[in-house]
Write a structure and sequence with these properties.
3 helices; 0% strand; rod-shaped
């Protein structure tokens, strides 16, 4: 583990840790949205199977629902935010290391 001694190094490291935690939070939200999508799709498949219809028909019908659209949008948004925060965290880690080795 790196130890940062001066205030600038520690500040950059602390900011990097906070940004990385925010990225993980968005990743968890993206995972929940993906699970919501999967759960809805499985439920639709069960309903269609009970009616004697195919899984393909269920998937097509589910893809057009508001639940599916929201889950996909939420997943996409959270993944982009997680990527942004991870990039920012990596930049701050690099800054902390730069300041340490300067």
């Amino acid at each position: 583990m790196q130890t940062f001694t001066n205030e600038a190094e520690q500040a950059a490291y602390n900011l990097a840790e906070a940004l990385a935690e925010k990225a993980m939070s968005f990743m968890r939200n993206a995972e929940e949205a993906a699970k919501s999508f999967q759960g809805g799709r499985v439920a639709m498949r069960r309903q269609f199977k009970a009616r004697g219809l195919s899984e393909a028909e269920a998937d097509i019908r589910f893809a057009g629902t508001v639940q599916a659209s929201r889950a996909i949008a939420e997943n996409s948004f959270c993944m982009s935010q997680a990527s942004m925060y991870n990039t920012a965290a990596a930049t701050q880690y690099a800054k902390a290391l730069y300041l340490k080795n300067r």
